[in-house]
Specification:
mainly alpha; 5 helices
Amino acid sequence: MFHEDIFHCLSTDIKGAISKEMIKENVMVREEDGGYLIPPMNILKKYIEKELEARVLVTKGLSPSRIAEKIELKNKERRVQFKEEVFPGMQESLKKMKDLTKAPKE
């Protein structure tokens, strides 16, 4: 499987950090033999990106609190972008619905 090959090519410290995070969030499922199943590529990719992004911020010399701020801002931007991709025109529709439910002014 391609995603397993990608996972095993990662450096030991990155693989360990990603594994720890995925186990904590129940993304890696334990097998009967005691090992863990590696999640599909789309999930694995998100965790790799998250870890590499955090390491780049540390390399740039940002403080842990500043790193957390940057990551949260990036996640917020991704959520907004996702909403617009999945629900185009959603804000306009919500505004129209809100206008319809307003009581008429006398």
